[in-house]
Structures are given as C-alpha cells and as structure tokens.
Amino acid sequence: MSLFSAVANFLKPAPPPDPQLVDALARVAGRVDPMLRAASHFDHRLATPLTHALGYCAGLVDALPGPIAVDRQSFASDPLVHALFATADDINQMLGRSQAVRDFLSSPASCQADHFHALLVARHQEKQQLGMKRRGDLIENDVPQRVLFFSNQTLIAPQCDLGDLRERLRGMALESLLQTFQAHLDALRHERDDLRADASVERTYLTVLHATSGREIEGCTRHLAELDARLRQIADTLMPDPLLDALGDFLLKPEPALRLTPFSISVDRLGVVRDPTDDASVQTLHFPELSTRDQRLHLAMLVRISRAEALEAVETMRDQQRRFMLI
C-alpha cells in the first residue's frame, strides 16, 4: 500500500455504528444499571461482548425447529404434536386461555394473514405408572412404565410474519440474558444490605463489650473485620468499571444462562417410553429443550396457528367464562 493510500484510508470517515448494536447498548444501560454509562469507554468496551451476545441470540433463534402446524389435523398425524397435548381439545384450551393470543387477535396486525406464528414452550415431564405390555402372544399386567407428558403449554409473541417473530425472539433472548445478569446484581445488593445490618449489630454489641476483654471481644472484632472486608469487596464489584468488565465477560459466555439442548425420546401413541425397536408404532421424538435463567427446561419450537381456529377458541373460552359468571 502506498503512503498516499494509507493517508487516504486514515482520513476516511468512520463507518456509521450498527443500529442494532446502538439499540442494544441503550438497552443494556437501561436494564442493568444506568451507572454503567459512567464507566470509561462504555460503548467501546462493551461493543465486542454485545456483538457476540447478539450473534449468539440470533443463532439460538435460528436453531428453533418449525414452524410446525398445531391443530386437530396435526394432532392426529404429527407424533410430536400428539405427545404435546393429551387431547385435540387441549389445543383449543391453550389458544383460548392465552392472553398473548387474545391480545394479538384484537390488534389490526392479526388480519394480515389466515395463519400466524408463535413460539410454543412446554414443560417436558415424566411419571411412573403400572400398565400392560405385550410379550409375544402374552399380555403382562402391572408392568412398570415411564410415561411422557407435557404441561404449561404457552404461546409467546404471536406474529403473522415469521421473520418478524424471529426478530422479536432475538430481542427477547438478549433481554433474558440481561435479566439474568441483573438478578446477579440484585443478589449482590441484597447481600450487601444484609452485611450492613450484621455489621451494625456487631458494632453495637462491641460497644457493650468495650469495658471487658478476652476472647469474646476478640472474636467480635474479628467477625466485624470479616464483614467489613466483604462489604468493601461487594462495593468494589458494584463500581461502574468492574461492573462493566463483569458484564462483558458474562456476554462473551452466555451459554450457562440461555441455551438449547437437543433431546430425543421414543414413545408409543399413549406416551409410554419404549425402545424404538419394540414396535413399528413407536416413534422417536426430537426436540430442543430451552434452559433460561431459572434453569427449568422447556420444549421450544416455532408453531403455525390458524387464525380462524384461534378466534373460535377465544370466543368459546369467553362464552364459558360468561356462563360461569351467570351461574
């Protein structure tokens, strides 16, 4: 490269910042702690970790399976949908109870298409029971069985356009990460308040003991020093610069706070866990489990819902509620 080219490149105006990154930086300061803005070179120091976190959230959303149709037809034909709900009527119950679906259907945006998309999450659970099992020509009774079932089926962020749904979910994934870090800070602040209260009690007790001597006053003094040391440590951690470093490290390694884990299980039409070689009717289900800040696992997938069926389910639920109020 010539000297002239080098000078020309140096004099070029800096490229405009990525709007997505700018928006994310503003969300970080508002969500975690406004005092972070007081840290030196806030934008520069957080740009790389936040870019990494944004990419991670995008990859996580892109890895979600679907969209999978969820209706009476798919309940009969799709083994995963059949496993998700005990009966086809439970699909309507989920739609009718969902506040997110009711809010979406009441908005003009819901009229743009005959179907809409959403994120479906549900708790994967298993229970033990005694049942029947065929062995050749014999049927055995009271055979211990594991049964797969799902609970807390919930629809999140309904959108007509699949691209809009993915974009919204990427934002929600980042928000979940920030809430996890904020929860860590809240725990530190709570510990700080408890330590302050303990230190105040120790100082009062030490004042009462000031006329005495011996091991009791020495132990009290040592405990007070330990409390003060921990308080100083927490105070240093909550200062803007160390706090920004901790947030950067967290965003560079978001997996413990938010991740998808592949899961497979083989079941028959009744949900009994079976060996896939036992019978031709046994189906192996594949789905990812989403782990968030509360560490509970949820099946997560994108689904496609008929707007007409959702409207019917919501109206049916409202009619049931009106009848209940009359009774």
Keywords for this entry:
single chain, alpha+beta, 327 residues, 11 helices, extended, six-stranded mixed beta sheet, 53% helix
Overview of the structural elements:
The chain is of the alpha+beta class and 327 residues long. The chain has one domain (17-327). 53% of the residues lie in helices and 22% in strands. It contains eleven helices and six strands. The chain has helices at residues 3-11, 19-31, 42-62, 72-77, 79-84, 89-97, 99-105, 162-208, 215-237, 240-252, 307-326; strands at 68-69, 115-135, 138-159, 259-267, 283-291, 297-306. Strands 1, 2, 3, 4, 5 and 6 form a six-stranded mixed β-sheet that branches. It is extended, with a radius of gyration of 28 Å. The chain starts with a helix and ends with a helix. Residues 10-14 have low confidence and may be disordered.
Nutshell version of this structure?
The protein is of the alpha+beta class and 327 residues long.
Shape: extended
How far from one another are the termini?
Answer: 85 Å
In angstroms, what is the radius of gyration? 28 Å
- What is the average of the pLDDT values? 86
Q: Please provide the ordered H/E string of secondary-structure elements.
A: HHHEHHHHEEHHHEEEH
Layout of helices and strands:
Elements: H1 3-11, H2 19-31, H3 42-62, E1 68-69, H4 72-77, H5 79-84, H6 89-97, H7 99-105, E2 115-135, E3 138-159, H8 162-208, H9 215-237, H10 240-252, E4 259-267, E5 283-291, E6 297-306, H11 307-326
Parallel strand pairs: 1-6
Antiparallel strand pairs: 2-3, 2-6, 4-5, 5-6
Helix pairs in contact: 2-8, 3-8, 3-10, 6-11, 8-9
